[in-house]
Each structure stands twice: as C-alpha cells, then as structure tokens.
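2024-03-11 09:14:02 INFO worker-7 job=invfold-0412 stage=load source=structure_tokens
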C-alpha cells in the first residue's frame, strides 16, 4: 500500500512540475490541404472543352478535349485528351474520359504524374462521331487524389 501511495505522489508531483514549467505535449498542426478549383467556359459546338485548374488561387494547368482536331498541333488521328501541369509543386494533373451514362466505361486517361513540370501529355483515340462522353479532371500527389472536378460533358 505504501508503494502505491508513493508512486501516486511521484506521478502527481511530476505532473505538477511539468505543468508549472509549461511543458505541454501536443500534436503538430496539420498542414492545410490545397484549395483546388476547376473552371470551364462550356462545351464547344464541335464537342471540345477546355478546363482550367487552379491551386491556391494560382493557375496550375489545364485539361482539354479536342474533338476531331484539324490542327496537327494536337493530333490528326482523332479525338485527343490533353493534360498540362504548369507548376513544380509536386502535384500532377490527370483526366479520365468515360462514356456518358456509363461512369465506369473508360475511353481514355492521361496524367502528368511522374513527369517534371511543366509537362504536357496527349492521348488520342478515334471515338465514334457524335458519341456523348464525359471528362473528369483531377489533381493528384503521389498515389493520392488531392481533388477532382465534376464530370464535364463533351462529345466525339
């Protein structure tokens, strides 16, 4: 019994001394998640769409769907998904194109993951004309998704 009382007194004394000395054990503050924004002016008549991506208020890159581009700058082989990462912040830009009405049927994917920014990636596939599709832009860091935008309508 004396030993238990002695241990309790030592523990209480130690706690009082640490408190008086201002020693407090706290967790380190969490790093705030980046604020990611996605904006688009809308689907063009030919089915193309440009989506701008911002991180913490600064332009970070874009996702573009070029439906049947006639310019060899993008592709002369069909519909093209283009992703661009403009910042050297350790994050990557990615996008997936899926068939409308079937959110799990992927048509194309592109990502700048693993590339040194600024980076641009193009993926091309000739989809059936007029095919209704959706494109979803995302920002990733390593294997984690930081944020994804909504599904935007496009067509081939």
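2024-03-11 09:14:09 INFO worker-7 stage=emit residues=156
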């Amino acid at each position: 019994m004396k030993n238990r009382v002695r241990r309790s007194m030592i523990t209480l004394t130690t706690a009082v001394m640490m408190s008086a000395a201002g020693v407090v054990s706290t967790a380190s503050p969490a790093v705030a998640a980046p604020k990611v924004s996605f904006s688009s002016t809308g689907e063009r008549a030919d089915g193309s769409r440009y989506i701008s991506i911002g991180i913490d208020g600064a332009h970070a890159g874009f996702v573009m769907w070029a439906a049947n581009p006639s310019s060899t700058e993008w592709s002369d082989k069909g519909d093209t998904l283009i992703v661009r990462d403009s910042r050297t912040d350790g994050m990557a830009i990615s996008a997936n194109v899926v068939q409308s009405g079937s959110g799990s049927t992927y048509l194309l994917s592109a990502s700048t993951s693993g590339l040194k920014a600024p980076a641009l990636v193009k993926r091309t596939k000739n989809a059936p004309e007029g095919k209704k599709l959706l494109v979803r832009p995302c920002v990733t860091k390593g294997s984690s998704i930081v944020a994804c935008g909504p599904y935007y309508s496009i067509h081939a």
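2024-03-11 09:14:09 INFO worker-7 stage=report msg="The CA atoms of residues 98 and 105 lie 6 Å apart."
2024-03-11 09:14:10 INFO worker-7 job finished
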